[in-house]
Amino acid sequence: MNHLQISTDPTLLGADLLPESLTTSPSVSTFLPEEDASTCLLLPETPSPPLDFSHPLTPSMGNATDNHVRDSVTGDDDQAAETSSSSGSSGIGMVAPVGAGAGNLFSHNSYQHLRKKSDVVKAGQDGSMHHAASLGIAVTKDMPGFVHWNWPLIRKCTFFVFLALIVAMVGIVVAMIATLPKSCNPPATWYKGSVFYEVFPASFQDTNDDGLGDIRGLIGRAEYFKTLGIGAVRLNSIFPSKHYPDHFQEVTSLLDVDEVLGKVEDVQKLAATLHERNISLVLDLPIHPFLEHLSPPTIDLDRLPNRTDGDMITSEFLRLSRSITTKPESGTVVSDVLRFWLTRTGVDGFYVKGLEHFADDPLLVENVKEWKYLLGPDRILMVGQKFVEQLPERTVRDVLSQVDLVDVYLDVSNGTDGIASTVQDAIQGRLLRDVDHPWIHWSLGSVSERRLTSGLSPNATLAATLMELTLPGTPSIFYGDEISLEEANDPKGEHVDTQHLHHLAAMVWDSAQNQFTSRGSLPWLPRSASASLHHLDYVIEAIALRKRSPSIYQNAVVKEGQMLPNTDIKSNQNEILVIQRWYPRRNSFATVANLGPKRVSLDLTAMFYSGEIVAGSSLKHERVYFDRFEINPLETIVVKLHK
């Protein structure tokens, strides 16, 4: 034992294995005093890890090959230790452990990896672990199942699913943006604010070369109606008469179509064809002089449910309709006529003409209520202004609450003062007094009035039509007015007997289209003197403007149940008409019409400052100022006002 209490017995130090020089190292006797205190042994109670301890993530040394490598490394370490010149006493005590550690550090074994499930051999029944030759880690049956999943495939699938979700989300966003409405205009019922087109069928289109128009001709012109942009086609009298069409007013039946025009099935097909293009069909129903008085109602309205749910055909309506299988010969009732045409053709409403002759009939209110009940909320009941004016004050409200449209005729021949007066009376009178009152249906021409071009330039028709298309309510275009069709031309007086019908001249079509009748046939009336086909583009443009502008197609502003007018109309010198239209949070418009014979320059700065021409002039989209507004004779210009 030396002075450090370290044994120098060769047997304890493995003297038989170590060289003699190591056992008698001079460093043992040359320690300084302060070095002696720093070379104390580990406490005996301090546990030391076993030499065969192996961490799961360290190289494995469990087989013979590993042991052989370890022994080789250890032997080399021992040789290195023998040639070492170190003089530290701690190096003597750490020879064996350092050799083992070096064997672990410099082992040629590779780190172990998880293997496929097929490479794993389950543990034996005795609890011992079995390994394949190529397996470096034990896998027990208690290991989680997700270890054996095909993770590369799972990663690929997850990536593609994530990518597909991103693409789907982008597609949904794009689709939502694409389907967003281009405008956010207030909705309106189909007959409110839309444009009607009145047709005299015998003069529109001939398909059987007899010189007379027919229902099938209307079917063939369905695309023309769509191009115009109208909302409804209104047919004048199509009913049998003693000599149709010369005496079309002398109706002999309200439950059939005159053979010149076709059959009831043709009307049904026409309605279906128009409905495919989102166009409605309305029939004129002339009950006078065909009927002398109104019949008692056929149903008890007090016992029937209200038809305000949008259901057009209630059970009671169907029950009553099934009884109309044949046309009654006598005692015709208007309700029966309505049922017949509704069930057989599917029309969208009726203009009951001649009601002014029944204004004092005691059964009027009950009949009107029954008619509207049969029609329902989505089909219209239309009457004339004369009928409303002749109603007794006690029945006005009851009747108007059942009516949807009131036809008002605008007489342009009276000048702009008369037009302004008529519009003001209609807006401020009975018609637009309450929310539930009917809308106004404006007419510039009809089967009972002469053409606008009679005695005037064709431009007068265009100017009046464009002016009408900016009025509040529902404007109507009489067939041919969109091209300024003139009356039948009979310079030699060969058709004096039909002179009262010359305003019903045959329709003129573009040379690229089929004409009214074939070249081998003559129309039932002399041909029109002329037509301005280029006016059609201006009318189509004005109708499109009306459809997208609430300031024009809305007849008033409804606020807290009250009707607030959105129209201001002024006349000057019986030749100039200025119409202003507005709607909350929408563009305002000003329509300036010159129905006089001279070009004028107007100063309208008291009303407007500037704007942009949007219809009625070839100078479309041009900025204009109202301090010196120039307008040609028989011209109408629509300006979108700058805010």
UniProtKB/TrEMBL annotation:
<keyword id="KW-0472">Membrane</keyword>
<dbReference type="Pfam" id="PF00128">
    <property type="entry name" value="Alpha-amylase"/>
</dbReference>
<keyword id="KW-0732">Signal</keyword>
<feature type="region of interest" description="Disordered">
    <location>
        <begin position="41"/>
        <end position="93"/>
    </location>
</feature>
<keyword id="KW-1133">Transmembrane helix</keyword>
<dbReference type="GO" id="GO:0005975">
    <property type="term" value="P:carbohydrate metabolic process"/>
</dbReference>
<protein>
    <recommendedName>
        <fullName>Glycosyl hydrolase family 13 catalytic domain-containing protein</fullName>
    </recommendedName>
</protein>
<dbReference type="InterPro" id="IPR006047">
    <property type="entry name" value="GH13_cat_dom"/>
</dbReference>
<feature type="domain" description="Glycosyl hydrolase family 13 catalytic">
    <location>
        <begin position="198"/>
        <end position="513"/>
    </location>
</feature>
<keyword id="KW-0812">Transmembrane</keyword>
<dbReference type="InterPro" id="IPR017853">
    <property type="entry name" value="GH"/>
</dbReference>
<feature type="transmembrane region" description="Helical">
    <location>
        <begin position="159"/>
        <end position="180"/>
    </location>
</feature>
